[in-house]
Amino acid sequence: MATDVKVPALGESITEGTLAEWLKKPGEPVAADEPIASLETDKVSVEVPSPVAGVMGEALVAQGETVAVGAVIARVEDGAAAGAAPTASPEATNAAAATTNPAGAGETPQLRGSAHAPDAGLGEEASGDDQGIMTMSPAVRRAVLEHHVDPTKIKGTGRDGRLTKDDVIAAAQAMKAEPQAKAPQAAPPAAAAAPQATPATTGERREERVKMSRLRQTIASRLKEAQNTAALLTTFNDVDMTQVIAARARYKDLFEKKHGIRLGFMGFFVKAVALAARDVPAVNARIEGDEIVYHQYLDVSVAVSAPKGLVVPVIRSADAMGFAEIEKTIADYGKRAKDGTLGMEEMRGGTFTISNGGVFGSLLSTPIINPPQSAVLGMHRIEERPVVKDGQIVARPMMYLALSYDHRLVDGREAVTFLVRVKEAIEDPTRLLIDL
């Protein structure tokens, strides 16, 4: 008996996703609630768990296909039915091949270990006694794909002449040994002949076509929407990080001992933004129709790099948080972004964004706002530069700050004032404690 595996609910207003990857292959054992596939939505990756324990059966959807919430994508067989699992349907395998090598790519479709791809060598040349090959077990099927051998040319030693995994491995080893056995001996001196021109060899110019992930498509669409809708402008300032670095060095050990988390720079900037937004509320507002919505709270979207693109989880009510809460939240989001386990709720909303390109070495940039927000603060790398202090040229650890904003809502005076307030708070962290 088989149990259907359906696409779970993906979040509010999300009705479909893209099957990004099969985590289980036909024939493999599956535990209850164990992920068997990964789906990509507009914002996050979601794993599809098996509703029962058993054996992975038929895959009904090819990698790269769009599936609706509630659609059946696979079947899980009862544990007692663990046998040679059926392969994907012809429609799914054809779609998978088209996704791997779309028309115009200029290559013959390759089998890259997918359990849903057609078996190599099972074409018109297969003879009538190839029934054992046609019913290869999943282990043999994987071995054929991994070693790139033609199963029609291998004599099976299993029951009824079927192929075994050892047969495939032995054939692969024989293929590797064959070129060495046929290595040419030292050739006798060739008869004098007119030298022939040897054509110059050129390096291969390869191209690879990869379909954009759903997340990457959404990122591209939203960034372009911001450019098309908002009146974007960026203003810059620089900040002396001496005092923050000193405070961090002085208290980082005590902070970690008490709170169990390292004290980073982001906590200082989140608190500085909260302080500055009180004086310049427009940067924490949004345009809705012909109205301006001012938020009486600060939900900071923190841009985090994930394997499949940039994600922006939200620190809720950051203005009411202490340093420890902010640092713990950021660390948790960073880890979950790398693991691909961020949920929809963590990414919904946000009234202001902070993007830290400095962790990648960026010196200066013009970040793009995250609609419908009206502003984003860009942080950059810290480097020592000569500055004038009290009439003397001295080296100081400096950072460039960039504020990109929607000029329809935020005036230039307000943008500059906001950056100055952030600069003052970072250069004199005491302001963060006495609310100046």
What does this entry look like structurally?
α7 crosses α8. The chain has eleven helices and 19 strands. It starts with a strand and ends with a helix. The strands form five sheets. Strands 9, 12, 15, 16, 17, 18 and 19 form a seven-stranded mixed sheet that branches. It has a four-stranded antiparallel sheet with strand order 1-8-6-3, with no helix packed on it. With 436 residues, it is an alpha+beta fold. The protein has three domains: 118 residues, Beta Barrel (OB fold (Dihydrolipoamide Acetyltransferase, E2P)); 59 residues, no CATH class; 221 residues, Chloramphenicol Acetyltransferase. A hairpin with a 2-residue loop joins β10 and β11.
Q: What is the fold's blueprint, element by element?
A:
Elements: E1 2-6, E2 16-22, E3 29-30, E4 35-40, E5 45-49, E6 54-59, E7 66-68, E8 72-77, H1 90-100, H2 131-134, H3 138-147, H4 165-181, H5 214-229, E9 232-240, H6 242-259, H7 266-279, E10 285-288, E11 291-294, E12 300-302, E13 304-306, E14 309-311, E15 314-315, H8 323-339, H9 344-347, E16 352-356, E17 375-379, E18 383-389, E19 392-406, H10 412-427, H11 430-434
Helix pairs in contact: 3-4, 7-8, 7-10
